[in-house]
Design brief:
about 425 residues, mainly alpha, 3-stranded antiparallel β-sheet, two-stranded antiparallel sheet, 18 helices, disordered C terminus
Length: about 425
């Protein structure tokens, strides 16, 4: 009876999502059109990769991204749309499954995935035909697993879009040297492929276009939920955040990677990866709202950490990304520069939400150290005494979707080590 009830609720959520989502569907997959343009240009005139435009929009990604997009350029538009959108949906399912682990029943997972289609970063990714969910799923799959060649997918993801490079920082602070080597090799390999396919385009990208943020869009736009966008809107300086931004970036990278390292050591792998993803979002000169699909694993990580008010936090957290207050104040054409104090709060809602989530994880980390949670050595607040670079350590199986509680497998049985908060 309970199973039938869960499937009924899941079906109801799917119906609601299928009705509401089309009313918020915008942009006509314009980014997929640009991706296809990049792939087609490689076939027609590889040297002109960064000269072509689609309705004024240039190809802004590394040359390797254009190589990856060649198959979509060869497909008829209708087929490319179906394949790309289906791949995005499958990636959304993977992000949820990798974030929560196997603890969520299939009907619940279906309902959650369907409901998450209404999150603004997700629906914008679908509407633009963006690659964000695919890269998020790829990074989670690569870093949370234990397989040969682990790290290679992070490097290749960075070859498509540079933002996953931040995860090399996580591999460094957690001393995962083998995975770091694979990730570095994957990225370097993608750069080499770019130079082989379009030497002129690759040289142009890596020597001049990489630092040219004017090709990406207006930095003051409310969709730019990064420290740089926040400082531009706050100060009114369209040239960027300047020295203050650089200082914030340094603090965010240092503090964020330290927190990610501590979370990783305690077996909170999803939290560590999600925090690293948010570090990248905050520190990038431009982080459009559809880049914020990392809100899903970050929200799951915080909910798994909480012992009280999980439902309240979950509703508020995902509610923020569903109603998207960043669009409430006046926007477009640099009207963001005239925001009032109240409008700054709503217009920077994703940034504020991220700070709250990271703060909860950091405070909980300190409390757990004091109370002995997730500790086997009272003198060292960490999950296991082995190499922190080994996912789960020797003989350990981390609880992927939650907030801790390592299990040592003995004879096929799972024995908990310390309280489980997830």
């Amino acid at each position: 009876m309970r199973s039938k009830w869960l499937w009924g609720v899941a079906f109801g959520v799917c119906v609601v999502a299928s009705v509401v989502l089309p009313t918020h569907w915008r942009h006509s997959l314009v980014d997929l059109k640009v991706y296809r343009l990049g792939g087609m240009t490689l076939l027609d005139d590889a040297a002109g990769l960064y000269d072509v435009r689609l309705a004024g929009l240039p190809f802004t990604y590394p040359p390797f991204a254009a190589v990856v997009m060649v198959p979509f350029a060869l497909l008829p538009w209708a087929v490319a749309v179906v394949v790309w959108t289906l791949g995005t949906f499958v990636s959304l399912v993977a992000v949820w499954r990798l974030s929560v682990g196997r603890v969520m029943a299939s009907p619940v997972l279906l309902g959650v995935v369907a409901g998450s289609l209404l999150l603004e970063p997700v629906r914008e990714t679908l509407g633009f035909g963006q690659v964000n969910l695919m890269l998020c799923a790829l990074v989670l799959y690569d870093l949370l697993g234990q397989r040969r060649g682990r790290g290679i997918w992070v490097g290749l993801a960075a070859g498509v879009k540079l933002t996953p490079l931040v995860f090399l920082g996580l591999l460094v602070v957690t001393r995962q040297w083998k995975a770091l080597a694979y990730a570095s090799a994957g990225f370097v390999g993608s750069v080499v492929v770019g130079f082989v396919v379009t030497p002129h385009g690759a040289e142009e990208y890596w020597t001049s276009l990489l630092a040219d943020t004017t090709r990406i869009g207006g930095l003051a736009f409310s969709s730019n939920q990064s420290w740089n966008g926040f400082l531009i809107r706050l100060s009114g300086d369209l040239d960027g955040g300047g020295a203050i931004w650089l200082g914030l970036v340094a603090l965010t990278v240092g503090g964020g990677l330290w927190l990610a390292q501590q979370l990783w050591r305690r077996g909170e792998r999803v939290a560590a990866v999600a925090v690293t993803g948010v570090v990248g979002l905050l520190c990038s000169p431009v982080s459009w709202s559809h880049h914020w699909v990392w809100a899903i694993p970050l929200g799951v990580a915080v909910i798994g950490r909480l012992t009280k008010y999980r439902v309240v936090f979950g509703v508020l957290w995902f509610g923020v990304f569903a109603v998207a207050p960043i669009w409430w104040p006046p926007n477009h054409e640099n009207r963001e520069l005239d925001w009032s104090v109240a409008e700054q709060f709503s217009g920077n809602a994703y940034l504020i939400a991220a700070m709250v989530a990271v703060g909860i994880l950091a405070i909980g980390l300190r409390q757990n150290c004091k109370s002995g949670i997730d500790r086997r050595d009272p003198g060292d607040c960490q999950a296991d005494s082995g190499d922190i670079g080994d996912p789960g350590g020797v003989g350990e199986a981390p609880v992927v979707g939650g907030g801790g509680g390592l299990r040592r497998r003995r004879g096929g049985a799972a024995v908990r080590l310390g309280p489980h908060r997830g």
